[in-house]
Amino acid sequence: MTDRLPVTFCDGILEANVLNGVVRITLGEARADGKPVPCGLLVLPLAQLPGVANALAQLVTQVQEKLRDAASRPAAAPPAGGGVTSAGARPAASAAS
What are the backbone angles phi and psi of residue 22, rounded to the nearest 5°? Predict the structure, then answer.
């Protein structure tokens, strides 16, 4: 059942509030003209907010560490044939292709 979870892409948070012990976070995405529009609502019990916030903060720290590590290493040539990188992402296509 977890392979069919809904996916929501967002560019940021438009609004967040707490009412009756429930946190409601309105997610937003930027339209083509750059104006944000609501695209989803994240709802969770207030008691769970610290855990969610800590998990997101840890993710930010991990990403920053990986970026620092990558910046301190010499650039490696991309794999032949445009294969999947060790991070699991496909390398960006070159402008010549």
Answer: -120, 130
Could you read off the pLDDT of 62-91 as tens digits, one per residue? 999 999 999 998 766 666 665 555 444 444
DSSP letter at 83 equals -
Tell me the H-state helices in 1-97: 49-72
Q: Where along the chain do its domains lie?
A: 9-71
- Dig out the tokens for 34 from the structure: 């750059």
pTM: 0.67
Architecture of domain 9-71: Roll (3.10)
92 to each of 38, 56, 72, 85, how far by Cα in Å?
A: 29, 26, 21, 11
